[in-house]
Amino acid sequence: MQVHPDQQESDDNHDEASVNNEAYRILSDKHLRLKHIVEIHTGTIDEHTEKLNPEFLMEMMDLHEEIENAESVDEVNVLTTKINDLISSETESYNNAIQAFDEGNQSETVIFSLRELYFKEKYFRRMLQYLNREDREM
């Protein structure tokens, strides 16, 4: 309340409220929070040079092929469920890593785990976006 722009006329309060709003936006979004934590500890993420587990990448390639070949709404629904199940399967890993981080464990192992989760989630989000594109042929 002390820095809310409606309560004070100062530009400093307006700036501080903007910073607080941006911090809230980042911390309340799982994906943005992961990215923020990783970048604080390892520097800016270079999306093009990241190396993920080859098994995971093969699974994503197979899934992308299934999406490409989906010809009906039912197939799209099955694939959407499959991707959401993959996301759910990563939830425990995320919860464990973020809990360790929140409790002060900022070891390389925890940061690496958070980094890997960030990129996996990014793949899942892209797959869902592609799956739900209206211009994708069925």
Report on this model:
By secondary structure, this protein is an all-alpha fold. The chain has one domain. It has five helices and no strands. The protein has helices at 11-28, 30-42, 54-69, 73-102, 108-131. Helix 2 (30-42) packs across helix 5. The protein is globular. The termini are far apart.
Which residues form runs of ≥5 with pLDDT under 50? none
- Secondary-structure element string: HHHHH
Q: How many H/I helical runs?
A: 5
Largest sheet: none
**Number of domains as seen in the coordinates:** 1
Q: Find the structural class using helix and strand composition.
A: mainly alpha
| Beginning-to-end CA distance, first to last residue | 52 Å
Oligomerization: single chain
Task: Kindly report the average pLDDT value.
Answer: 86
Q: Total strand count, please?
A: 0
Share of helix among residues? over 70%
Task: Determine the strand fraction and express it as a percent band.
Answer: under 5%
Rounded to the nearest angstrom, the radius of gyration is 19 Å
Task: Tell me, briefly, the overall form.
Answer: globular
Write the layout of secondary structure elements.
Blueprint lengths: L10 H18 L1 H13 L11 H16 L3 H30 L5 H24 L7
